[in-house]
Write a structure and sequence with these properties.
- By secondary structure, the protein is of the alpha+beta class.
- It folds into three domains: 124 residues, no CATH class; 318 residues, no CATH class; 208 residues, no CATH class.
- The chain is 44% helix and 16% strand.
- Strands 6, 7, 9, 10, 12 and 14 form a six-stranded mixed beta sheet that branches. It has a six-stranded antiparallel beta sheet with strand order 15-16-19-24-21-22, with no helix packed on it.
- Helix 8 packs antiparallel against helix 9 and helix 12 packs antiparallel against helix 14.
Length: 842
């Protein structure tokens, strides 16, 4: 009976969650000036859908419960919290329940489905992968991920600097990169601006040369794609080493596969394995060392010397790896010192040769044997270690356990390793400390513009092998019972970081708000409930302390081999903590709504008025009344430079009429994408939805807010805009380059545009097609004009369009094109340009 009731409850939770997934929930403010009284806007699905889904899945859950398979549907019980939308007044008592919808609810459903399928599937025979198969699969997988990341993100953080050093080695045969920075040689592989990073008082790079030397062959043969191939090869070796080490340690293919999936399919490995950072080769060195240490056969004297040389090269990748190199070499000595075939003298000689080479290299670059002289100032602060460690584990932007909670098994697995082998357990713990403490002591413990927990990455292969040991030996005690939930949630978060619309979400900006958690906050701001050690405000520090206590309890449960440490009570404590944050009034979303309010504006402009119910007042509102309550907060970016210029964060605005509050009427400039248009008062309107919107104004005396006064019928969305006078030219796709005079269509491409009149008396617009420096054939298509023009170099053609309904859409296709560098060898512009689209009125 109990199983049937549990199955029925889980089934009803599934039905309610699926029905609630169709609802829109978002916080808005009831007045234009006040920010004290948040409302929750809810669009309710048809009650027939709610009832039907509840009955259908409830019956299915009851049937499974009577057959003893209630465990198949119980993972969906947390999704039932989405049913709070059907309980009037509940959001007034527990606003955090509003977060159980949208993308976050999708994530919970995905996690529950993965766990359910794992329980539903019959026990399969263990599959042992060969090294060759694993290398091929790992290489293909990471090459595909790397190609996707390169296309969506490109280079970021320190990557352009490492590749510029590679460029100098390849073309100049030296490490003098000062002239390469000055000549902007990075333009051949990077589109942004790179500021010089030189060792103090030298023309040489402050970054290590290990990564450039490693990437040099691939870069020389294939440019950036060759770099991707190199990184994919290193990542494949890393995966194979983790799998083989776990297999040798546990003799269980299932445990080895668990370690492989936990490492390779989660953050940070999914992203750092395809990045040009020194952490990837350092992690590979650690994994290869572990694989050799678990091998009972000792290395020969020659091999011991080679291992010491290779591990001693780690400081050439980054100075912070100097303690790690010493520990790895010492581990070889402790492991094989008593073996006859092993020569301790060879190991010491190799280590000495590596150390002498490193310090001589440091002296040749900076004139000092002190390798820290290149930085010119102290960069390690031991008093910051506690905050840095908390950040590396719990920060919502860069914390390991918030993005990949499966590493909790790795931390607990160190206890299991100690029980099996003090050497392996101590080795894992000491390496973890040698990696994490220097990272935590660094002022930029977050790693800058990089995936989360970058500074912990070299120690993560050891943690995953420890997790494999726990999975095999102690899965029924401590946190071992949590393994399916931790793995499924970690993979789910990684997939969210990779695939959610509008990414990339694996690169954060050190602004105190994790991008993936913002993206998952489609109804309520999840970032308010997660600690931000970047910001280090009291609520974040308190939250981090609570999570640290939970971590200690988990480790204690593993040490004591307790069986009562279950996930459900811990989940209840986390929900209670979220309720306490709401009750304490410390949630920051009550002051500034996050970027997804722009999505609410779009939904409001496209939805019928009768669908909306404002909670907790239970009052039905018309679309107009509701739209008047929705506002976008506009923030000033501190890096703008001019204190008179205030920039908003980026939004996407629907078509409609808007009003800005908080600024005198001296004119404001609206930027969407790369383009901009001007308004001379606090109200503006657009018949076109504006993508990537930002605003600039002068002398904003109070925090400005933007209100949607009257939504317009749905129209196309512009990615960039230019204007002049009463005309606005909108680009609808990314197949263009912005030019001060208009938009260049890419070579051999087609692009769509909208031209909009800002005044009703304007009834005609002129479009001018200006060809580049090569013969071309251009096609123009609109509702009333359809023409094809052969154009000689620099020839122009003008087209007149009647403005019907204030907006006219047209397409232009360029069959040919040219590159500016082909006409002028001094030009560094390698873009393929087709045709320039402009209007004399702009």
């Amino acid at each position: 009976m109990k199983r049937a009731v549990l199955g029925a409850a889980a089934g009803i939770a599934i039905g309610l969650a699926l029905a609630a997934r169709t609802a829109l929930r978002a916080p808005v403010f009831d007045t234009r000036s006040g920010i004290e009284a948040p409302w929750l806007v809810t669009s309710l699905p048809p009650m027939l859908l709610v009832l039907g889904a509840s009955l259908l899945f409830g019956a299915l859950g009851t049937l499974l419960g009577r057959r003893g398979r209630h465990d198949v549907v119980t993972p969906f019980l947390p999704c039932g919290l989405a049913a709070a939308v059907f309980l009037p007044g509940v959001f007034a008592l527990a606003p955090f329940l509003a977060s159980f919808s949208g993308w976050f609810l999708d994530l919970l459903l995905l996690i529950a489905m993965a766990i359910s399928l794992s329980r539903l599937a019959p026990s399969l025979p263990a599959v042992s992968l060969s090294t060759r198969t694993l290398l091929l699969l790992g290489f293909a997988f990471h090459l595909a991920v790397g190609s996707w990341v390169s296309k969506k993100v490109g280079l970021s953080g320190d990557e352009p600097h490492y590749l510029l050093i590679t460029y100098s080695l390849l073309h100049d045969f030296d490490l003098n990169v000062q002239n390469n920075y000055g000549a902007e040689d990075y333009r051949s592989f990077y589109a942004g601006k790179v500021e010089p990073r030189l060792a103090v008082g030298t023309p040489y790079p402050v970054h290590g040369i290990g990564v450039p030397l490693l990437l040099l062959p691939g870069f020389a043969l294939g440019g950036l794609y060759g770099v991707l191939v190199t990184e994919a090869g290193l990542a494949a070796l890393l995966l194979a080493s983790i799998y083989e080490s776990a297999l040798r340690l546990t003799a269980s293919p299932k445990a080895a596969l668990f370690a492989l999936a936990s490492f390779g399919l989660t953050s940070p490995a999914l992203f750092l394995s395809v990045s040009a950072y020194p952490e990837l080769p350092a992690a590979l060195a650690v994994a290869l060392s572990l694989r050799r240490l678990v091998d009972p056969q000792p290395p020969s004297p020659v091999a011991a010397f080679a291992w010491a040389l290779a591990l001693g090269a780690l400081p050439f990748f980054h100075l912070k790896f100097l303690p790690l190199a010493g520990l790895l070499i010492a581990a070889f000595g402790l492991r094989f010192a008593r073996e006859r075939r092993f020569s301790l003298l060879s190991l010491v000689a190799g280590a000495a040769a590596s150390a002498v080479s490193f310090f001589l290299f440091s002296w040749s670059l900076s004139g000092s044997f002190d390798p820290t002289a290149s930085y010119g100032r102290q960069r390690i602060f031991l008093d910051r270690v506690p905050q840095g460690l908390a950040g590396l584990l719990f920060d919502q932007e860069f914390g390991l356990l918030l993005h990949a909670p499966v590493y909790l098994l790795g931390l607990a697995g160190i206890v299991t390793l100690f029980r099996r082998s003090r050497l392996l357990g101590g080795f894992t713990l000491v390496v973890l400390l040698a990696v994490s403490i220097p990272g935590a002591a660094h002022p930029l413990w977050s790693g800058g513009t990089s995936p989360p927990a970058r500074f912990l990455f070299p120690a993560l292969p050891l943690m995953m092998v420890a997790a494999a040991a726990l999975f095999e030996r102690e899965r029924d005690v401590g946190v071992g019972r949590w393994a399916p939930w931790l793995l499924a949630s970690s993979v789910g978060v990684a997939l969210s970081m990779l695939l959610l619309p509008g990414g990339p979400f694996f690169l954060n900006g050190r602004d105190g708000r994790g991008q993936v958690w913002e993206a998952l906050s489609s109804s309520w701001d999840l970032t308010d409930y997660l600690p931000s050690l970047v910001r280090a405000d009291p609520p974040s520090l308190a939250s981090a302390a609570g999570l640290a206590l939970l971590l200690l309890l988990a480790l204690g449960a593993q040490i004591g081999k307790v069986r009562w440490f279950r996930l459900a009570p811990v989940g209840g404590l986390l929900l209670l903590a979220a309720w306490a944050i709401d009750a304490g009034g410390v949630s920051r979303s009550r002051v500034l709504e996050p970027h997804w309010v722009s999505g609410v504006m779009h939904r409001l402009s496209r939805s019928p008025a009768e669908r909306f119910l404002a909670l907790p007042s239970f009052e039905r509102l018309s679309g107009e009344a509701l739209a008047a309550r929705v506002s976008l907060p506009l923030e000033a970016a501190p890096h703008d430079g001019d204190p008179r210029h205030w920039w908003s964060r980026s939004y996407s605005l629907p078509a409609g009429r808007f009003r800005l509050s908080g600024a005198p009427p001296i004119g404001i400039t609206f930027y969407s994408g790369e383009g901009a248009f001007q308004s001379d008062d606090l109200s503006f309107s657009s018949r076109v939805a504006l993508g990537r919107f930002r605003l600039r104004a002068r002398n904003l005396f109070e925090p400005p807010r933007l209100f949607l006064l009257e939504p317009s019928p749905p129209t196309r969305s512009a990615l960039s805009t230019i204007s002049g006078g009463v005309l606005r030219l909108h680009s609808l796709d990314d197949e263009v380059y912005l030019d001060p005079a208009g938009f260049w269509i890419r070579k051999a491409s087609r692009a769509s545009f909208l031209i909009e009149a800002g005044a009703p008396e304007v009834r005609e617009a002129r479009i001018r097609l200006a060809n580049g420096g090569a013969a071309n054939v251009v096609s123009f298509a609109s509702a009333r004009v359809n023409a094809r023009y052969p154009l000689a170099p620099w020839e122009e053609r003008e087209i007149r369009l009647a403005l019907e309904g204030d907006v006219v859409e047209f397409e232009v296709e360029s069959e040919g094109g040219f590159r500016p560098s082909e006409l002028d060898p001094r030009s560094r512009d390698e873009r393929g340009l087709g045709i320039l689209v402009r209007s004399p009125g702009l």
